Amino acid sequence: MTTQQIICIAIFLITLVFYMSNKFPLPLVSMTSMVALTITGCLSPESALSVFSNSSAIIMGSMFIIAGGLNRTQMVHKVTNLVYKVSGGSFTKGMIGYCIATLLIAQVAPSAILIFSICYPLVIDFCHKMKVSPSKAIFSIGLISIATVTAFPLGSGATTYIANNTLFATYGLNYVSGMFDAFIVRIPILIIAVLLGAFVCPKFADDKGPLVDEAERKKLAERPPLDPIREFLGYGIFVAVVIGILLSSYIGVDTWIICIVGALLVILTGVLSEKEAMQALSMPPIFLFVASLGIGNALVATGAGDLISGVVTSILGENPSHLFVYTVFWLVGFVVTQFMSNMALYQTLVPVALLTCAAYNWNPIGLVNMLFAACWVSYLTPFSTVAVPLMMSVGGYTQKDLLKIGWLPALVTTAVMIPWCYFMFPL
Predict the structure, then answer these.
(1) What is the rounded distance in angstroms from the CA atom of residue 266 to the CA atom of residue 65?
(2) pTM value?
(3) Alpha helices in 43-180 (DSSP H)
């Protein structure tokens, strides 16, 4: 282990301690850590600066404004009133409906931040109508948005097996995956996320009040409704952005461009005033995300991926049991994804998994798809996906809150996924 790796790990552990202490704002802690990593040479100045222009940060800020525009219309209240009527005034029944709706949206929307941005304004409005703190419900929506994205063989989820088969051929593995293999692997996660999200997570979440100052809520409630044209534009811009994101790979326009154009249109058309747009653009979660991204880049740049690969192969030994292999890869993927980009981690670990399968002549289908699932069960810290800082912001959560609410879904998912993959997809 090099000196830089030791310094990087030390700063990372100190960051976690301050996260847990909750004595300082999380964005301040993460920004300070990123600066410390840059000063000590663990992160290059160029890499540190690049995180501020990261497309995910731009998407996040733009979606704040776009969601704010949708929230300015009457659509949110209409959906809330409908759910309230159907649920008979029951918070639990309402949560069941929103959890299932989030799961379905997660199958056609390609990113957790988009799914969460669509769903959280509806849930917050429902909570206010029920006189329940949004902190009771927001984690559940974030959990489902992150863990179940594109699990069904629909849209981009229908092409997963093609990419996997290409990888198998590249590594000399004579196995062919089917369209439904990735979906079968993730079935337990879908069930666990919806059931625990609807019935269990709200019980573990603290009541943090309305999360909006009462005077501010009253002021917002007294705003006059938009005129019919701007009401239509509020809906239309949001829908157009969602469709644009879904078709971005086909029309050749980057997702961040679609989002920022949508945000500008919300302001230019008067759906939101400039002041309202700035209020919707919440900067703390953006700073938390970009700094967390910088910390993750430092972990990668200093050789964290290589260390992980080396540890995994040394633990497996020469003739490991299949159950042990599944257990090790799940735990490595699930634990490490809480501290670095889930996509970066997956790309780091997939070669290790494929080389391991090639060395022992194992069937890689279950292992690779399980590894993907493990890397996307990333909701316990703000490091791995941009949706978590947003979830923390709108839900009023601290790092302790994430662990308090998320430990049971994490434990149940781990306990179920390892034997499920072991028996359904023998190596």
Answers:
(1) 7
(2) 0.72
(3) 45-50, 55-72, 75-87, 91-105, 112-130, 138-147, 160-170
Closest CA to 7 of 299, 293, 332, 290: 299
| Spatial distance between the Cα atoms of 21 and 26, rounded to a whole number of angstroms | 10
Hunting for tokens 């979440």 — which residue is that?
Answer: 205
Helical residues (DSSP H) of 252-303, grouped into ranges = 255-268, 274-280, 283-301
* Cα 194 to Cα 103: distance, rounded to the nearest angstrom: 8
Judge whether 142 and 116 are in contact, CB under 8 Å: yes
Contacts with 238 (C-beta within 8 Å, 6 or more apart), sequence order = 66, 67, 69, 70, 262
3-state secondary structure of 111: coil
Structure-block tokens of residue 151: 């699990």
Distance, CA of 395 to CA of 135 (rounded, Å): 5
Contacts of 271 (CB under 8 A, 6+ apart): 69, 72, 73, 226, 230, 233, 234, 237
47-66 residue pLDDT tens: 888 878 877 778 778 877 88
Q: Could you give the CA distance from residue 365 to residue 185 in angstroms, rounded to a whole number?
A: 10
Residue partners of 244: CB distance under 8 A and separation at least 6: 251, 253, 258, 262
* Helix, coil or strand: residue 144: helix
The candidate with the shortest Cα–Cα distance to 264, out of 237, 231, 225, is 237
What is the residue type of 208? K
pLDDT tens digits for range 202-221: 999 998 888 765 555 555 55
- Rounded to 5°, the CA angle 80-85-89 comes to 90
Please name the residues in contact with 402: beta carbons below 8 A apart, sequence gap of 6 or more: 139, 379, 380, 381, 388, 392
